[in-house]
Amino acid sequence: MSEVIVCDNVRKRYGDTDVLNGLDLAVPAGMVYGLLGPNGAGKTTAVRILTTLTRPDSGRVEVAGYDVEAAPQAVRRRIGLVGQQPAVDEALSGRQNLEMFARLYHLGARRARHRAGELLDWFGLADTGNKPVKQYAGGMRRRLDRAASFVLAPAVLFLDEPTTGLDPHNRNQVWQAVRNLVATGTTVLLTTQYLEEADQLAARISVMHHGRVAATGSPHELKARMAGDRLDIVVHHTADLSAATDLLRTRLGVTATVGYLLGGAMTVPGGGNYREFLLPGMFAMTMVFGIGNSMVAVSADAARGITDRFRSMPTSAVSIMAGRALADMLNSTIALAALVACGLAIGWRPHHGLGSTLGAIALLLLLRFAFLWIGVYLGLLTHANPEAVTAVRTIEFPIGFLGNPFVAIATMSAWLGGIATWNPFRPPPPPPATCSATPPAKTTPGSPSTPPSWPPSGPSC
Known about the structure:
The chain is α/β, with parallel strands linked by helices. The chain has three domains: 3-78 and 154-225, 3-Layer(aba) Sandwich (Rossmann fold), CATH 3.40.50; 93-147, no CATH class; 241-422, no CATH class. The chain is 48% helix and 14% strand. The chain contains 16 helices and ten strands. Strands 6-7-8-3-9-10 form a six-stranded mixed beta sheet, with helices on both faces. The termini are far apart.
């Protein structure tokens, strides 16, 4: 029997930790092969290497006859991946999700619709297939995620703890779907912590410990070697102090900001309509805050496994980031258009012609595009770390509120005005005044006086 997965002395190290320490694995074709082990044994890292998501430090890895480092696209065209988190789009319906994945696997529109209908029936989702996924219960999302992995019958399917969080009925449905797929010739590599699951599905099992295979055999052979039973009891604490701390910090920050803006500082030196001053600052800050929005979106996609699912498919890596950039830019464009419309509705008016106004909007969107990639980079770097998100927000807020996009520097206290003066994100200074030999016109009592220009810090003769 030919081997469809081969790992030869594979090693992977993160910092000082050897996650894979000489992994050797040979998986025959046409069966369910179980990979068991406790948390930290290296199962998920092994799957990430086998699905081209992570590069090994050393060793040889082949899947479906192709080297994962030398021919990653060839490998992706022959594999499917089911991660630990449901990697589906919550804004789309269940049917639309399945049709989207089918089209990404290069099925025609008619065939994609037909296959989506088959999978909805197969996984018991036919009645809810047209509802948005955000209305699905947790178990239904898991089933939809599993269905997406069965769009095609890949040569090799990787199931990374596929039944975690499913009730017994839904778990049996997944097991039956796996058996049906293997009957068509697909090889399944199953990682799980449940011996019962491996016993039900796997023809052979390898047990991992500290990054290498400690034992291999059929379920019957491995159970015969066990000296006794083991019972693990996990106690879950409901209190999440970290999340509460972050929430409290965010609420306090918002309260302080609103108090600062609404506490009497909303005046424009020399008079004038505050809307003319406030709206441009809101336009700019909407673009600046896009850093955090992009970061959170990318981190969430990575944490939920959506990024890994797309990366494991035969699609260009550039298209994944291009899609994220296009979506963020579309959202920002809509937000900016809404702000402009609201500003016009409350009386704000641009002071120059249509061409200049459109040019200013284009510059704002260009600013958003630049900040977008900073957010994407930080999102990939932090992997949904709440402390990192808080740190970025901590940087964003001073950029906007310790400057003068919203409040004139002349109305600030001395220490705050000094910071705002040096803040790089603020409107440019007024053009230099031109001295004239003509003396200023005198005003007569009772005549209207001209208010001083804003900002008052401009040079005078």
